[in-house]
Amino acid sequence: MSEKAQFQEKLQAQLDEWGIDLAKLKAKAAETTAEARLEMDVQLVTLEAKLEAGKEKLAELADTSEDAWESIQGGLESAWGSMKTAFSEAAAKFKE
What we know:
Blueprint: H1 3-30, H2 34-62, H3 70-95
Helix pairs in contact: 1-2, 1-3, 2-3
């Protein structure tokens, strides 16, 4: 398996995990009071946008040739770090 394929597989697995986490957070938000749900809904919209951005980045990677993919790897890793932080922060707020 090429480095690009391994990288894509890793990113797809992380997206799948975040999708599951998002579904869990939505379920938790549905069980809260209306006031708390308003704040949670803002977080959920942000997370959904980040998840979609991640999917777009993964599609961009898939469209990149084996020779050129390393040139976008740094940007992808940076975007992934941002998404990871957003999911961690949102999960922490949901625990409050």
